[in-house]
Amino acid sequence: MAADLLGPLLAKLRRRDDVGAEEEAALRSAAGETREFGAGRTIVRSGIVLSQSMLLVDGFIARYKDLSEGQRQIMEIHVPGDFTDLHGFLLKRLDHSIAAMTRVRMAMFPHEGLERITERHPHLVRLLWLSSLMDSAIQRERILSIGRRPARARIAHLICELYLRLEVAGLAGEHRFELPLTQLDIADATGLTPVHVNRMLRELREQGLLTFRGGIAEIHDWQRLSDAAEFDADYLHLEHRPR
Amino acid sequence: MAADLLGPLLAKLRRRDDVGAEEEAALRSAAGETREFGAGRTIVRSGIVLSQSMLLVDGFIARYKDLSEGQRQIMEIHVPGDFTDLHGFLLKRLDHSIAAMTRVRMAMFPHEGLERITERHPHLVRLLWLSSLMDSAIQRERILSIGRRPARARIAHLICELYLRLEVAGLAGEHRFELPLTQLDIADATGLTPVHVNRMLRELREQGLLTFRGGIAEIHDWQRLSDAAEFDADYLHLEHRPR
DNA sequence: CGATTAATTGAAGGAGATCAATCCGGGTGG
DNA sequence: CCACCCGGATTGATCTCCTTCAATTAATCG
Predict the structure, then answer these.
(1) Is B54:B74 a contact under the CB 8 Å cutoff?
(2) How far is CA B197 from its chain centroid?
(3) Is the CB of B140 less than 8 angstroms away from the CB of A65?
(4) pTM, whole model, 2 decimals?
(5) Residue B79 has what DSSP assignment?
(6) CB-CB: which of B75, B122, B133 is closest to A118?
(7) CB count in 10 Å sphere of residue B4
(8) Which of A180, B168, B171, B226 is the most exposed place for a label (fewest CB within 10 A)?
């Protein structure tokens, strides 16, 4: 028996507002087939016209852009329960690419189904819209991080964020979680070089804040880590309220 | 006779899709009072619960966040026709502040009116959603810029972007436009220091790409400027298609 | 086990930051 | 009408965080 495809998404939405049974049903019936992709696979290439959007069910995915000199920047790391390209529903073509960072499972949502939701389920649309706004908020915080935080704080911040997001999806233990990324991935997400990420991770480890090794992140001192990052969870919009 | 409040917004939306007469009327009736704010005023402070959203009608506005050491990062610079906090409709509290960079005029949209639109005008909702997705795309490009482009390219890129966005709003001439920002503003938007912005602007000027002086930006060589920035307008999603 | 990919460490270099003046344009009040 | 003021622009000198270059080591996997 496969785990519930929509589980992490519903957990994420219900953390922010109620989702009625009818809405849940509408969401389920909008979901199409499930697909799997191997680690490293580019799933959507920037600029391609899309006819369906994807919900990440299992694994980790990155939205990224490349520059001509081979430099890569990750705009957002997705965890299960995230739509990776819900914005493709209205933008039609993505302005970035999407790649699997691990082996992943995706649930496909044909755009006709989403359009039907916009016509029949006003509150559910607001929740889907909200979900894209939460991505936007995460991206804004990334702008702040990359623009103004020093390297050590950037990395600390990323870890704090992923911890909370994974916890909401029910995928993190007590300050410990699977994070199967390479140091290069972290470098691409923080706008640093892998060499420097390595040094900063060592520093964080030696200071007893955090261990990141073998795809496992362990937060040893949440207080000092979030202080180092100037992390404030407000931007994750975790409160439950009518939307 | 005041200029049409919704003019720049409609121009922006109609550049991407059709907006029917009925939809236009619905939008107009959702608009409430107009407000003005002086240059430098903080209009919305991060975290405050909102009951209406604002459309920028005239002037320039910044979404920004501050860090404890007094460092500021601008996430997005808004031009007329942009909703500055449409996301507040569903997020309810902003994760950033909003400040007037010049004297500005804003049209207020009470959230009840927006909610009514979600219940009666599916296609119009999609357009409003789209508008927030376009902001998101702009913010992603900023992540790329700040994360991976060198200082000179970051500034060049920002100018290219603002030029096209202002042109869509009907506010730019032939490679020349009013941009009443200080070099500090540009520094805060690009994640640089004002001193370095000054040096890079001089370089761009001496190389004959761009002059930015006295609140006027003049692009002398679009080709070389956009090359320097690796600017590709795709992320502005300028194509007209059914959404 | 070789072979490939990721992590680690050292040394040197550079883009951009910081610190500190000076300049400039425009408002303003005497 | 001009001396003064003030925020922004400009320039120089110095510093530093992070990059770059280059090996070496560890881990992973057919």
Answers:
(1) no
(2) 20
(3) yes
(4) 0.96
(5) -
(6) B122
(7) 12
(8) A180
